[in-house]
Amino acid sequence: MGIQIDAVVSYPINDEVERVLGLAEAVGEPVTVTFLWEGRTEGDRAVLVPAATLALWEHWAPTAYPARGVEEGDGTAAQEPELAHPAEFGAFTLFRRRVGGRTAVARDGVVVAELLDPGEAHWLEEKARHVRQGFMDPKQKAAFEEFLARQTALGEQ
Predict the structure, then answer these.
(1) What pLDDT is attached to residue 74?
(2) Are 33 and 102 in contact (CB under 8 A)?
(3) Which of 11, 31, 37, 115 could form a disulfide with 24 if both were Cys (CB 3.0 to 4.6 A apart)?
(4) C-alpha triplet 10, 15, 21: angle, nearest 5°
(5) Angle at 69 between CA 67 and CA 74, to 5 degrees
(6) What is the pTM of this model?
């Protein structure tokens, strides 16, 4: 992923989070972010994906990302995270989804990006790229077939 940012977050009123979210929205491409919350030694890594980019990836990805927390064998899922109030950072509000582990980032009531697990973001990007590269729209396919029909056979050259 293109950009990497380390944000040190101490309190919800910290404007560093708002600046990181604003930067990601302005750049228009995925941004890898590490959040170092006060009192913790290890950071939480996430990829902030603009909503339009995520929609494009999800359009081209042929299947959904494999569920996390599902144990092999018995198929029981891990315990759901506890419901929490949305976190506000200036003009941005973060809504943590209980299913899937994503966090939606909204500004003025519109989702502008989502925080994804780095593994999920990479998986989606790769699947979407692979499927998109093998796709030809109908006009392009017809033109290519016409081009191939005009070519002489290898033995006739």
Answers:
(1) 46
(2) no
(3) 31
(4) 105
(5) 95
(6) 0.66
